[in-house]
Amino acid sequence: MDATESRRQFLRQAGLSAAAAVLAGPAAATALAPLTTTTRFMQDANQKKVGFAIVGLGKYATEQMLPNFKNCQHARIAALVSGSPDKARRLAAEYGVEPKNLYSYQNFDTLKDNPEVDVVYIVLPPGLHAEYTVRAAQAGKHVLCEKPMANTPEECQRMIEACRKAGKQLMIAYRAQYEPFNLDAIARIRKGELGKLRMITADHGRQVQPTKDPADAWRVQKKLAGGGSLMDIGIYSLNAARYLTGEEPVEVTAQEHSDKADPRFREVEDVIHFTLRFPSGVLASCTSAYSIEGVKRYRAFGDKAWLDLDPATDYNRHRMIIGDQDGERQPQLKEGNQFAAELDHMAECVRQNQTPKTPGEEGLRDIKLIMAIYEAARKGKPVKV
Ligand code: NAD
């Protein structure tokens, strides 16, 4: 139960208790005492959850993450950090965050004095991830950071080092690695259901609309986004190829095309096609684009069967199809809550002092590979990694 729900329940129960006591006198008030105890217990339970400070109240934070804390067993919203006090106050009222736990980017570092905050969750444009991760670690907080981890491998290294020095966990929010259809696909491949894995195709694309959607404005600015479609959504193709094979690529090739007459692509790339060669011989052929209608899919081909996830990395409504020489079938899997699973994983790692499944090193690997892919596209030659 999140703070809002527990507060609502508290008010509901407090209201009922008071009304009943007025009607029935002091004896009834005593008889109702266990209700209050239950409420206190629930409030205590909520307080015992790991407290998260959400930094950046943009589209993803407000539309996906804040609403999903109510589905968490171990994580709760403890504080909000925003450059817009009105927005922060409105969301604080909605999610039961105390006014004293609202912060700006200027007083961000005073989070160190707030014992209710265990984890700082960074949902800012990638160009700001390194700065806020380092500052959060220096404030003595664990860090959950959105993907892509940062603009460069050097920034990723600084983030890892700052958290290591502070003795704090660092997790990168690769939500697909907490999503049941993706976990099921990995399990089937590991069990050999497709036979020997031979190749993977993965595609991610959408229309980026910086003039229509404020959340897309930073996506076409190199300084804030680090790059274009590859950094933002091609990273899902790349990360999927790695978690489906369970291997690290040894060589990449790439080709890029961006129409420089389109103002969206003056600083960042549009279409990029890249291949990854894995040690077992698996070849992955991946794409991303900022100028096509939405696609978020992959297919893994084994020597006995193929597995298709389309969409593979959406927020919901995933669909898996497995095909072989006897035909196609659609396993009936249950949609899960990847957002709550991801937040709860971070909370449990903090409680148990364990390294997260997707630590800073996982984010760094992708950023290093992305740099190699850009290099291969620039040089028109394979790059060993
Ligand atoms: P957004 O623009 O809606 O949110 C970014 C927030 O950062 C805004 O509230 C903005 O005000 C704030 N901000 C603070 N300083 C800023 C500055 N100097 N310039 C620009 N913005 C500044 O973007 P978003 O789509 O919510 O993305 C935020 C992060 O979340 C990115 O890292 C993105 O890759 C990630 N994201 C992840 C997923 C996912 O599925 N895991 C989905 C969408 C976005």
UniProtKB/TrEMBL annotation:
Pfam families in the cross-refs: GFO_IDH_MocA, GFO_IDH_MocA_C
Signal peptide boundaries: 1-31
InterPro entries attached to this UniProt entry: Gfo/Idh/MocA-like_OxRdtase_C (IPR004104), Gfo/Idh/MocA-like_OxRdtase_N (IPR000683), Gfo/Idh/MocA_oxidrdct_glycsds (IPR050463), Glc-Fru_OxRdtase_bac (IPR008354), NAD(P)-bd_dom_sf (IPR036291), TAT_signal (IPR006311)
Keyword vocabulary terms for this entry: Oxidoreductase, Signal
GO molecular function list: nucleotide binding; oxidoreductase activity
SUPFAM superfamilies for this protein: Glyceraldehyde-3-phosphate dehydrogenase-like, C-terminal domain (SSF55347), NAD(P)-binding Rossmann-fold domains (SSF51735)
Domain spans labelled Gfo/Idh/MocA-like oxidoreductase C-terminal: 188-385
Superkingdom as given in the UniProt entry: Bacteria
Segments forming domain Gfo/Idh/MocA-like oxidoreductase N-terminal: 51-174
Record carries keyword Cytoplasm: no
Protein name: Glucose-fructose oxidoreductase
Organism: Hymenobacter edaphi
Lineage: Bacteria, Pseudomonadati, Bacteroidota, Cytophagia, Cytophagales
